[in-house]
């Protein structure tokens, strides 16, 4: 299985990209991880493939009036008399080479957004910018050119031409672009190989299964050679197993071909698995955008939190998202006695041995005691170097098995074998079960009755103190008394 973190080179860039939680430029109330801030040595290369700025779409009699009222603070339901607000002030930036997912329940406005992104629908207000060019106000001919050259679409119901062979379907977009037959067939054949349909080139769509037909749809969009692919619920009609296969294949293809993909889905698990970043929509608005881990671990509001409750966390969270700092370590240079001291102080039965922060292995209490008895002082000879390790980018789903096998926490090591964290089994279980792994201070239970306040007036009254026996009738115990 591919790792969600490392599959996109743009997501884990090799040079100084600063990522910080910032308010989204277009939505001060919506937070997203900041767009990559590139170091100056990369030059001013635009990494933005597509941008949506303050998009509104209202269907109905008075769309502009509805937008004015929405801006003034009225809600979607309030402006129904003027029209249906399908999209309200949606803004996002899609970076080149990423999979950006727009996720929301039926009616939340996803399809309307995607139709505005490829110019099939004009926004009531706002702007769509594709590769630096605004398509708002573009002529029909310009829009056709943009769709031909920059943006391809993959539909839920494949939209294949039934009387054409698989290869002719896959080559169709190039045919429209006017490419010579030999050129388009060769390009289509290459892509068909990549999607696993090389042997089916001469078949017809009705000879294929649903998953295979969707592969042809995907091949057609990829053959077109556009940088941006819009995929509208592209896998929703497929059986669950085929669907998962397609999701995995899409990530592989995206990694290989580096296209920019905007993927629409109502399925949060799919969004979490595919998305480098996700925009969550509700009632026409984007309510949160961020990486899958951001959304899972820090939902912006109760709506998103409820949504993520049922997410298959093992497919989204990585080792680095759940690991704990490695406290139970002993340097090799501390020798057997040093290891013994750490084991006793930490009251544990095994510690990790490290050398220059690099993991050497684990040392158990038994081995240490035997070594002390035998008069051994050097630690390396008793280190067990077969400890199970995982990488920071490994998905939990891929490490659960190893966690079950090992009696000590899993060691998380980076590419230089540096011990960057540990995952005790309890931490893994807590993360999978969405239980907070942190512990809090125990609250101090308040004494139910303030005995001093209760009894002082009675004692005072018995002693004849002023204000005691003469306390007003109905006064609460303690009122007017000493505290
Ligand atoms: N042409 C139209 N005329 C009037 N209302 C529309 C039109 N298209 C969409 N809507 C309304 O806009 C809202 C958003 O619809 P949209 O299809 O964009 O949502 P969606 O999230 O894609 O839902 P689904 O997954 O069901 O397609 C809905 O209330 C829908 O009824």
Automatic annotation (TrEMBL):
Report the GO terms under cellular component. Answer: membrane
Known PROSITE patterns for this protein? ABC_TRANSPORTER_1, ABC_TRANSPORTER_2, CBS
Domain of life, per UniProt, equals Bacteria
What biological processes does GO assign it? amino acid transport; glycine betaine transport; response to osmotic stress
Q: Which Pfam families match?
A: ABC_tran, CBS
All copies of the ABC transporter domain together span 50-308
- Report the residue ranges that make up the CBS domain in this protein: 323-378
**What lineage does UniProt assign to this protein's organism?**
Bacteria, Bacillati, Actinomycetota, Actinomycetes, Micrococcales
Say which family it is in.
Belongs to the ABC transporter superfamily.
Q: What is this protein called?
A: Glycine betaine/L-proline ABC transporter ATP-binding protein
Q: Does the keyword ATP-binding apply?
A: yes
